[in-house]
Amino acid sequence: MLPGRSFVIARHRQRSMRTLKFTYRMELRFSSPVSRHYFALRCIPKDSPRQKIHLTRREVEPAEYLDELEDGFQNLKLTGGCLAPHSFFRFHVEGTAEVEGMGFQEEPLHPMYRYPSRYTAFEPEVAEFAERAMERCREAKAEKILEKAVCVMDYLHANFAYVPGITNIGTTAAEALRMGKGVCQDYAHIMTAVMRYMGIPARYVNGLMIGEGFTHAWVEVYTEKGWYGLDPTNRLHIDDYYIVLAKGRDYGDCPVDKGCFFGNAAQQQNIYVNVEEMEHDRDRGINGTAGG
Q: For the whole prediction, is pTM greater than 0.85?
């Protein structure tokens, strides 16, 4: 887990944009051959005002056809299929991302981000937690939207434990709160649900973060100035160490990989994710030549 907000603010002042090199590899091994395998992948980051992507590698196999399109949430999606029998499936994406630091993203608000969704329903556990968070915000005299969002993030970080292996991709915000522990997906779902309960639009973000491991999830809230990102798992403001893959109402709108196939086979999945700062960027920071 990364340091708190004081660190992210300091490093943001040091540099407002940096270049990150990213790698995403996923491989599925089947215990026996499968066929008629159809898949949808949201594993390639997309250009936006905040990030410029330079893709150096994009491999998907086996794939008899592959199409690239935008889904209903304007995420980049690869769809394809393999009809012939096969015992493995993998994709490998590499590239660089020029990423800007913290900032507000001006964008029209779609009303769907105001309302509960499948993973963020206002069940009793969510309502109870949200009421306690709202009381904490009143005590802290958090009045503006971003102040309230940061207050909720701090409260969630202090009252929910990061414990891998307890929840899964189907766990809702209410179920995670019932257990009191979970991973980044659960933190993001809970905070998204609480913000919407408070009448503040929020959306779920799936992406990559500096370091080695897996994908990460965080939240964007809609403020008076536009969308703004917060990472409740690490209690950080989103800066230039994060790369966005996809956004939606919750995890169900933006899974990295989803598919179906015909065959009676067990699956073994291996994932490798790495994001590192390019060497010339680190040198500039060390030499003190970065702006900001």
A: yes
